Amino acid sequence: MIEEVDDARLDAIFEALANPHRRDMVRFLGLQPAAISELARQRNLSLPAMNKHIAILERAGLVQRRKIGRTTYLTLRRQPLASLMTWTEQFHPHWGHDDATYDNYLDHIVRTGTPPPTTRSANKKGNTR
Fold this sequence. Notes:
Structural class: mainly alpha
Distance between the termini: 24 Å
CATH topology of one domain: Arc Repressor Mutant, subunit A
Strand order of the largest sheet: 1-3-2
Radius of gyration: 20 Å
Shape: elongated
CATH class of one domain: Mainly Alpha
CATH superfamily of one domain: Winged helix-like DNA-binding domain superfamily/Winged helix DNA-binding domain
Largest sheet: 3 strands, antiparallel
Number of helices: 7
Order of helices and strands: HHEHHEEHHH
Mean pLDDT: 84
CATH architecture of one domain: Orthogonal Bundle
């Protein structure tokens, strides 16, 4: 059974990973911790801009600050990425060619004469997900 991943946590992770600077930082921090000033210099970002990116990564739980002397380092926290993988694994049985979901839907209609039931959240008024 796949554990439920909190929607708010998923939203924060997706928001954090939606930006190429932040994805690059996650990739880099996956290899080693780094000083914030060094990450900013490598990416040609100002420290205020870097701190805005870091705040979004922290909100998603993806990074942690550690101060050693006068230098602040970032380390990657892997648990949120594991949560993201858990969430994506629910789709694994449905992976195949791009039309697999549509084909399954049509097969169900042919077999039963009715469309399959939809989820409650998809039927909520105003839901755009």
